[in-house]
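[job 0412] stage=complex_fold ligand=pyridoxal-5'-phosphate status=START
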Amino acid sequence: MSEVEAAANYRHIREELPEAVTLVVAAKGRRSEQIRRVIEAGAKIVGQNYVQEAEGVMAALGETAGRAEWHMIGHLQRNKVNTALELFDAVQSLDSPRLARAINRRADEPVRCLVEVNIAGEESKYGIPPEEVEDYLRQVGSMENLQVEGLMTMEPYFENAEDARPYLRRMRALFEQARALELPGIRMEVLSMGMTNSWRVAVEEGATMVRIGTAIFGPRR
Ligand SMILES: *Cc1c(COP(=O)(O)O)cnc(C)c1O
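[job 0412] stage=complex_fold status=DONE, emitting structure tokens
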């Protein structure tokens, strides 16, 4: 897909999304020039899955990189935490106690994070099991250098997005339950869910943030 098409796709999705819903451009595997055009078209947040790739893209973009926030949305290896903290404005993939401790130890100011939930208990996915989320929030709520702002999930993929609805609805319920606990050190304001195939349903089910790649950039090669 050309840079111009990617920018147009971004604008169309942004127009269709309710204003209150935040759009994260999921940019793994995309060329820097495509990402540049999407930032120039107004994208405020770019998501990356790999620390090294993000580093390369940001270097290639130069000053343009500074016009967007950068969020880590992929699994973060503990040996990459230092570099990740230099590059990213937020980590959406807080997915284990050990990662939380590593970030807390190495950061020198609170890092904005979302707790990733493995909502369907899939073997192939990272994330905290739903039934352990409350405990996990209690743990990370006491960590000085973590500022948890909400929950994130990568719900199972279905060709028919309606099939994802029960999982998205379960996430919303978990989010509301977590919010009602009013745990110390935890904000429950962001619910990041919904991708190319599912974002419309995710918004109907209460997502405050969606992460979209393919619908902007086209299929990955
Ligand atoms: C790739 C990715 C997305 C976007 O997926 P698309 O189907 O390409 O829109 C969202 N979130 C995460 C964590 C991803 O890795």
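The longest strand covers residues 146-153.
[job 0412] exit 0
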